[in-house]
Amino acid sequence: MIEATLCFPLRGDVEGDAKEVLLIEKRRGLGQGWYNGPGGKLEADETPRECAVRETREEVDLAVDPDDLERAAELTFVLDGETHTFCHVYVTETFEGQPRESPEARPEWVAIEEVPYDRMWEDDRLWLPGVLEGRTVRGEFAFEGGRPLDEAEFVGHDLEWDVPLSEEF
Ligand SMILES: Nc1nc2c([nH]c(=O)n2[C@H]2C[C@H](O)[C@@H](COP(=O)(O)OP(=O)(O)OP(=O)(O)O)O2)c(=O)[nH]1
């Protein structure tokens, strides 16, 4: 099983500014060509928070403090009946720097009402809107049709909203 992270930096929401989320257009690997948050797979001996910080730095050159990351979701992606990936999702309103393009990602600030769900993983429309409003969720998403996961068919889901997420991460 793969353990992975996603980090969604947020800005705005003050004095009438629209709340925006930093998305990336992923340039390679799983989910290539789709929008997502910065993130990726845990490396050896790395905690999920460390992974989210490292991936956000590597992909868009934004500095986030692991202690500022707020746990938002725990997502399990199941492929043909077996857990393929467990993903820790964080949001943060605190970061330093300006997002910069990298070989892996093209960053873009997007108003949360304008998130391009038609250009994202199919399950994202089910959980990301709530997460961007500050809710927590635990979700399981079933895919079928063999690897790679991003070519499999999304066949079912189960969501639990406003749950306390594991304190370990
Ligand atoms: N938003 C969203 N993200 C997903 C879904 N499924 C899924 O694996 N992800 C995330 C988890 C990871 O952050 C990312 C895949 O990991 P990755 O970016 O390291 O994959 P990769 O194949 O490019 O790996 P690498 O070569 O860079 O090591 O995609 C999904 O359904 N929705």
Which characteristics define this entry?
2 helices; single chain; binds 8-OXO-2'-deoxyguanosine-5'-triphosphate; globular; NUDIX_hydrolase_dom; 169 residues; mainly beta; Nucleoside Triphosphate Pyrophosphohydrolase; hydrolase; metal ion binding; 8-oxo-7,8-dihydroguanosine triphosphate pyrophosphatase activity; Oxidized purine nucleoside triphosphate hydrolase; 9 strands
Write down the overall geometry: globular
Label the structural class: mainly beta
The CATH superfamily is known as: Nucleoside Triphosphate Pyrophosphohydrolase
Based on the coordinates given, report the CATH architecture: Alpha-Beta Complex
Low-confidence stretches: none
Q: Give the ligands present.
A: 8-OXO-2'-deoxyguanosine-5'-triphosphate
The largest pleated sheet is described as: 9 strands, mixed
Rg measurement, Å: 15 Å
Strand content: 35-45%
Q: Could you tell me how far the N terminus lies from the C terminus, measured between alpha carbons in angstroms?
A: 17 Å
**Could you tell me the mean pLDDT?**
97
Number of strands: 9
Helix content: 10-25%
Please give the count of helices: 2
* Series of H and E elements: EEEEHEEEHEE
CATH topology descriptor: Nucleoside Triphosphate Pyrophosphohydrolase
CATH class division: Alpha Beta
What does this structure look like?
This protein has 169 residues and is mostly beta strands. The protein has a single domain, classed as Nucleoside Triphosphate Pyrophosphohydrolase. It is 13% helix and 40% strand. The protein is built from 2 helices and 9 strands, in the order E-E-E-E-H-E-E-E-H-E-E. The protein has helices spanning 48-60, 124-132, and strands at 2-11, 20-26, 35-36, 39-41, 70-79, 82-92, 105-111, 137-144, 153-161. Strands 1, 2, 3, 4, 5, 6, 7, 8 and 9 form a 9-stranded mixed beta sheet that branches. A hairpin with an 8-residue loop joins strand 1 and strand 2. The chain is globular. The protein starts with a strand and ends in an 8-residue tail after the last strand. The model has no long low-confidence stretch (mean pLDDT 97). The site of 8-OXO-2'-deoxyguanosine-5'-triphosphate (8DG) has 17 residues, from strand 1, strand 4 and strand 6. One of its GO terms (cellular component) is cytoplasm. Pfam families: NUDIX.
